[in-house]
Design goal:
- The protein is an alpha/beta fold and about 475 residues long.
- The chain has helices at about 40-45, 85-100, 105-120, 135-150, 175-190, 190-195, 210-225, 235-245, 250-255, 275-285, 290-295, 305-310, 330-345, 350-365, 400-405, 435-450, and strands at about 1-15, 20-30, 35-40, 50-55, 60-65, 65-70, 120-130, 150-160, 195-205, 230, 265-270, 285-290, 315, 385, 415-420, 420-425, 430.
- The chain folds into 2 domains: about 1-65 and about 375-430, Urease, subunit C, domain 1, CATH 2.30.40; about 65-365, TIM Barrel (Alpha-Beta Barrel).
- The strands form 2 sheets. Strands 1, 2, 3, 4, 5, 14, 15, 16 and 17 form a 9-stranded mixed beta sheet that branches. An 8-stranded parallel beta sheet has the order 6-7-8-9-10-11-12-13.
- The longest helix has 19 residues, at about 435-450.
- The termini are far apart.
- Keywords: Hydrolase.
- GO terms for molecular function: hydrolase activity, acting on carbon-nitrogen (but not peptide) bonds.
- This is Amidohydrolase.
Length: about 475
């Protein structure tokens, strides 16, 4: 008998492997941080013994979901920026908040976002942190990711212009200085948390960076191996601003400056021309699809079906809670499929399996981690979650994939494992005091709203202050 650390048996295992195999009575063995084996329970029982054996009868086991775009600290502003387009929303809500947030608040509010990701089955997140000039704020968000147990990529945003657009001084730095800080973060944190964390680069928007800045980010990425992510054509304003500044639209400008490449994850991509899509294909760009955020801000419907048909890597994302009001990847799964159906007026244009692929295999591929996460296979990281069918929302169940995409909610997520470690069991976090964190975060958000002046947005609305 082979000894492993964790052995889960009698589960319905949705592997998300190349064949999309589903094992109706499956077992999975974990050794350290990796999957040692999986297969039919009867066969696995004959081979493995473990320190911890879990009988998962009646439940389904899925690979962890991959959330490839969020702003973790934005849980601070849930519900404050109602009914605004993105350009007004950043001025009224997120910029004032970013200007005054302190490291303790950034840690607590980011930790809340991490917990919700885990509760909704997400085991990997890519955080797009604002370009704040206080290094302690970046350290605080990174610490929240590490303490939560999530697998994460933390991206440090580069912004070297945009004063005329209202970007605060604390969010603008010379490119050389900002990239030096990104390199410092990479040297300090790459591989932290038993290999769960790495560092990447981010470009805020096309109207908040200079042409030398774009070229410098590409050089840094090439020299360090850091990926680049960027908000791209979330609204029509991106192209208007790019045309005014450079005489060409956003994506042609990114192509011209060499920014586009296989290591580039384009966020939103709502307003795309045929030329834009062709340039993405030529450079093998990955795309982060943010359906709930795009609806919430009224940005439009991204042409994700068209992008997917061109062979581009598509990952699913919540965006920050400021433009979503939550970090629920299960909700995002459902809306990701439904929004495309509405946009195409075709219920078959995105099926449940496609949506799950975007949230697992697609996200892993977009991050360059397809050999590590995104499916359940021997040798891959032990990142997965266990789903119980017995909630009123989900029951009765028939098809496990359709159930997860269209019917499941956070109460269905019973257990979450990241890097071989059980982080949540029977709906309770094993390593953190969730109740205390939530109360502390509520107090922090209330104090932050008062200092930032965003509390005034509630003057004609109800104000809820539970602590």
């Amino acid at each position: 008998m082979q000894k492993v650390d964790l052995f889960i048996r009698h589960a319905l295992v949705v592997t998300q492997d190349d064949q999309r195999r589903i094992l109706e009575d499956g077992a999975l063995a974990v050794k350290a941080d990796r999957i040692a084996a999986l297969g039919p329970t009867a066969e696995m029982d004959a081979v493995f013994t473990a320190d911890r054996v879990i009988d998962a009868s009646g439940r389904a086991l899925f690979p962890g979901l991959v959330n490839i775009h969020t702003h973790l600290f934005q849980s601070a502003v849930k519900g404050l920026g109602e009914d605004m387009p993105v350009e007004q929303w950043v001025q009224a809500v997120t910029f004032p908040t970013a200007r005054v947030i302190n490291p303790e608040e950034a840690y607590l509010l980011s930790l809340v976002s991490c917990l919700e990701n885990l509760r909704s089955g997400a085991t990997t997140v890519m955080d797009f942190m604002y370009s704040l000039d206080n290094p302690a704020l970046h350290d605080a968000v990174i610490q929240a990711i590490l303490d939560s147990g999530l697998r994460g990529r933390y991206t440090r945003t580069i912004v070297d212009s945009g004063e005329e657009m209202g970007i605060p001084a604390v969010m603008r730095q010379p490119v050389k200085e900002a990239l030096a800080h990104a390199r410092t973060l990479q040297n300090r944190y790459n591989g932290a948390g038993d290999g769960r964390l790495d560092i990447g680069l981010a470009i805020g928007v096309i109207w908040a960076i200079t042409e030398p800045g774009l070229r410098a980010v590409r050089r840094c990425a090439d020299e360090t191996g850091m990926t680049i992510t960027m908000h791209v054509n979330e609204t029509l304003f991106d192209n208007v601003a790019a045309q005014q500044r450079w005489g060409r639209a956003t994506i042609p400008m990114l192509f011209e400056t060499g920014v586009l490449g296989p290591d580039f994850i384009a966020v939103h991509c709502v307003h795309m021309t045929d030329e834009d899509i062709e340039l993405f294909v030529r450079r093998n760009v990955a795309v982060a699809y943010n359906p709930v955020s795009n609806m919430y801000l009224g940005s439009g419907i991204a042409p994700i079906v068209q992008l997917a048909r061109q062979g581009l890597r598509i990952g699913l994302a919540t965006d920050g809670s400021g433009s979503n009001n939550c970090q629920d990847m299960l909700e995002t799964l459902k809306f990701g499929a439904l929004l495309q159906k509405v946009g195409h007026m075709d219920p078959s244009c995105v099926v449940a399996q496609q949506a799950l692929d975007w949230a697992t295999r697609g996200g892993a591929a977009a991050l360059g981690l397809a050999d590590q996460i995104g499916s359940l296979a021997p040798g891959k990281k032990a990142d997965f979650f266990l789903v119980t069918p017995f909630t009123a929302k989900a029951t009765p169940v028939h098809d496990p994939v359709a159930t997860l995409v269209y019917s499941a909610g956070q109460p269905n997520v019973e257990m979450v494992v990241v890097n071989g470690r059980i982080l949540m069991e029977n709906g309770v976090f094993t390593h953190l005091n969730e109740t205390q964190i939530l109360h502390d975060a509520q107090r922090a958000a209330q104090n932050l709203a008062r200092r930032a002046g965003t509390e005034k947005l509630l003057e004609r609305r109800g104000k809820w202050r539970p602590v």
